[in-house]
Specification:
The complex is a heterodimer of chains A (249) and B (327). Chain A is α/β, with parallel strands linked by helices. Chain A has helices at 43-50, 73-78, 96-108, 125-134, 150-163, 180-193, 206-212, 230-235, 237-243; strands at residues 3-14, 17-28, 32-36, 58-63, 66-67, 81-83, 168-172, 198-202, 215-220, 223-228. In chain A, strand 4 and strand 5 (66-67) form a beta hairpin. In chain B, helix 2 packs antiparallel against helix 9 (218-244), helix 3 crosses helix 9 (218-244) and helix 4 packs across helix 5. The chains are: A alpha/beta (249), B mainly alpha (327).
């Protein structure tokens, strides 16, 4: 198996505080890789570094043998590595259909056409409907995204992301704020979309992590504490120590 | 919850998404056009032309604020800048009116491109301040340089012959020239808002980090919308200089930048027809309350305060909310 995404010596300093310190990561093609750790461990910072929303102080990031350390966040999305956000990220004032179409539009590269009518976008509708159907939102297709429940917003976000057909997905706490019912639905969806993709996710819900991930990296105080499958990681004394009092959230 | 998915027929689509111009908008545009065709025979044509120029200016500004989510506080630079260039073109270079307006508009486009490129990296209040700073530079340039005539401005700009053929001396023929420009300009702005580009713009306004994560280089879109907005503001300013046969410091002064914000907010930012209503309201007030002198500004401020307190979405915004349709 080959390595899709690799970080070497990744470091991020904020004024006088090291949030991420010399982290090495290697994500294998076709796996679901989870990044876990107690609050303040640097998971989200790490995530923002990998997706270029933050610029690392030191270290290198390599995606499919290409150094992306200096690329813009939009640039890495164009390479096929797309992220989600902790709080649901939909375009509130647009309809469900339009939300998904925004992703499809970018792939077609006609998005600067300010002289063209919106009608030209209707040829994307069929593809968009397919993605919306996949996440079970067909009946809401003409609703404004703002009107959807929280769980459905997250489904819409996933549909929009999948419309880009990215080879690699980075999910930032996909289960945050979800009901048990939603969690089962999204878990099934993630498992399904992971079939021909690589996924890196930050997640607090350990049962979801145990259930979904092939490999786990544990961060604490900005450093890698342990790495391996759930079995190995959960037995590591260092991990147990870091998680004391917080193991079962 | 999942079972309902199959039941698509349960709730018919509220509206057939937003493809094409909705019937309601078509009707409004047609009624507006019919009204504008008879307007010069009911009120003083120069007043009507002034309203139309400001309506286009406010609509151009609204493209940036309402749909791009960017508050520029220096739009007088493009409005006034274009009026100076158009006046100079008609008076000194001897251009025909349509070419004079075109050169003013192009100048505003270039100015917008340059200032936009330098300001869009800043956000929120910093963006507003940077655009204001550049607009003040344009103001002092207009005050100091030779061709702009300083305090006097460029006066007695000849009205000329359209395409070198049709005389625009007569107020009525000039009115129809202005009508074609402003109405056409507003229709073009409508198209921009409802284009593939407009969709991306709304997405950026709604959630910029998400648009970035989908692979959009958002700064390019912001620069594009800034330039387009400046261009149409310039078209409005250039046309106004032909109407009043004058380009003056008033048009590049910062208070003009404030006035267009006022018009847009009062009418309803992010709506299609709001800025037009706002512009008509403010210009009429200045015109019909002119006898009150300096009190007009105070009355205007009062109207603004009441407007913001009572209907934050603006006049048209409130109506749109009540009838539950975008206007």
């Amino acid at each position: 198996m080959s390595i899709v995404l690799k970080a070497e010596g990744l470091t991020k300093e904020f004024k006088g505080f090291v949030a991420v310190n010399n982290v090495d990561l290697a994500i294998e093609e076709g796996t679901i890789h989870a990044l876990i750790g107690p609050n303040g461990a640097g998971k989200t910072t790490c995530f923002n570094l990998l997706t270029k929303f933050l610029q690392p102080t030191a270290g290198r990031i390599i995606f499919r043998d290409r150094d992306i350390t200096r690329l813009s966040p939009a640039g890495i999305a164009q390479l096929g590595m797309v992220r989600s956000f902790q709080i649901s990220a939909v375009f509130d004032d647009l309809s469900v259909l339009e939300n998904v179409r925004i992703a499809l539009q970018r792939k077609r590269g006609e998005s600067f056409d300010f002289w063209r009518s919106e009608k030209s976008l209707s040829q994307l509708d069929d593809a968009a409907r397919g993605h919306i159907d996949d996440v079970g939102l067909s009946e809401f297709i003409n609703h404004r995204a703002a009107e959807l429940s929280y769980g459905r917003k997250r489904s819409l976000e996933i549909a929009t992301t999948l419309a880009l057909d990215p080879g690699m997905l980075l999910l930032d706490e996909p289960m945050a704020g979800m009901t048990q019912q939603d969690i089962e639905r999204i878990s099934a969806l993630i498992r399904r979309i992971a079939k021909n993709r690589t996924i890196l996710m930050v997640e607090h819900n350990l049962s979801v992590v145990a259930d979904l991930s092939d490999r786990i990296t544990v961060l604490a105080r900005g450093e890698v504490l342990a790495e391996g499958d759930y079995e190995a990681v959960s037995k590591s004394p260092a991990v147990i120590e870091a998680y004391i009092g917080a193991e079962d959230e | 919850m999942m079972a309902l998915t199959k039941n698509q027929a349960l709730e018919p689509a509220k509206q057939p998404s937003s493809i094409g111009m909705p019937l309601l908008h078509k009707v409004i545009f047609l009624v507006l056009l019919a009204f504008l065709l008879v307007l010069p025979f009911m009120v003083y044509p120069v007043f009507a032309m002034k309203v139309m120029c400001f309506a286009l200016f406010a609509a151009a500004f609204n493209l940036l604020l309402g749909f791009g989510g960017l508050l520029s506080f220096g739009h007088a630079a493009y409005f006034g800048g274009a009026s100076y260039i158009a006046a100079q073109a008609a008076k000194v270079w001897g251009f025909t009116p349509e070419l004079a307006v075109l050169s003013g508009t192009l100048a505003a486009a270039v100015l917008g491109l340059v200032i936009g490129a330098l300001s869009i990296r800043r956000q929120g209040i910093y963006f507003a301040m940077v655009t204001l700073a550049f607009a003040q530079m344009v103001y002092f340039f207009a005050l100091q340089s030779d061709f702009t005539g300083g305090e006097d401005g460029i006066q007695s700009v000849p009205r000329g012959d359209l395409f070198g053929l049709v005389s625009l001396q007569d107020n009525i023929s000039l009115y129809f020239f202005v009508l074609v420009i402003t109405f056409g300009g507003i229709l073009m702005l409508y198209r921009i808002v409802h284009s593939p580009f407009g969709q991306v713009l709304k997405a950026i306004r709604e959630n910029e980090p998400r648009a970035i994560s989908l692979g959009y280089q958002v700064n390019r879109y912001k620069l594009m919308v800034f330039t387009l907005s400046a261009t149409f503001a310039g078209l409005a300013g250039a046309t106004k200089s032909q109407v009043f046969q004058l380009a003056s410091l008033t048009d590049v002064h910062w208070s003009m930048s404030g006035e267009v914000v006022l018009m847009t907010l009062l009418g309803g930012m992010g709506t299609i027809f709001g800025p037009l209503v706002g512009a008509a309201f403010i210009v009429s007030m200045q015109n019909y309350l002119a006898t009150f002198g300096a009190w007009v500004t105070i009355i205007q401020g009062f109207a603004f305060v009441i407007g913001v307190l009572l209907f934050r979405e603006g006049i048209i915004g409130v109506i749109a909310r009540i009838i539950k349709r975008p206007l």
